[in-house]
Structure formats: structure tokens, C-alpha cells
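As a representative case, the lines below give one protein's residues and C-alpha cells.
***
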Amino acid sequence: MSAVQALLLALGLSVAGNAALGWAWIGAREKAATSVLQRDDARAAASACSDATEDLRDLADKRAAEAKKAQAAARSVALGHEARAQTILATPAAVPGDACASAQARIDGWLKGRAGQ
């Protein structure tokens, strides 16, 4: 083997080695670029999730405020019904000794009151 052939062989091996390193570098660069894109996608998804969670919190707070108002209104109505029930229970029988006639008189009075509303 002559010196020229040895030099050409060394040159060929060097070119092959450089080509292999080039392909490895290109592969690493592609993986890095893909990782950056995946990271950016993950950040965007996390940000969207955070925004949606904040929107849900705002909606929950709004509904809680509405529920408190509805509960207060229901409590007021319930107190009115309770007062009316206590009045009915404290009222003596319309027809003493006759529960059916008393109930009928009470119902008639209730119906007259509803007709006036």
C-alpha cells in the first residue's frame, strides 16, 4: 500500500466520520427543536387551563352570591309561612267540638283569602 493510498483511505475515513457526526448533530438539533416546541405547547396548554380555572372560580363566586340572595329570599318566605302557621295553630277552633266543621270553616276562609290575591 502506497502513501497515496493510505492518505486516500485516511481521507475517506475522515469524510465518513464527519458525515456520521453531521447526521448525529442534525438528529440532536431536531430533537432539541421538537423539545422546544413541546415545551411551548405544554406552556400554552397550562396557561389555557389556568385561565379556564380562573373563569370557573369567577363563575362559582357569582353563583354563590346569587345563591345567598335566593337563600335569603327563601328564608324570608319561610318565616312568613311559619308565622302564618303559628297563627293558624294558635287560633281556636271555629266550631268548638266539631273538628270537621272547623276545618271546613278554616279552608273556606283560606280560599276566600286566596281569591282576593
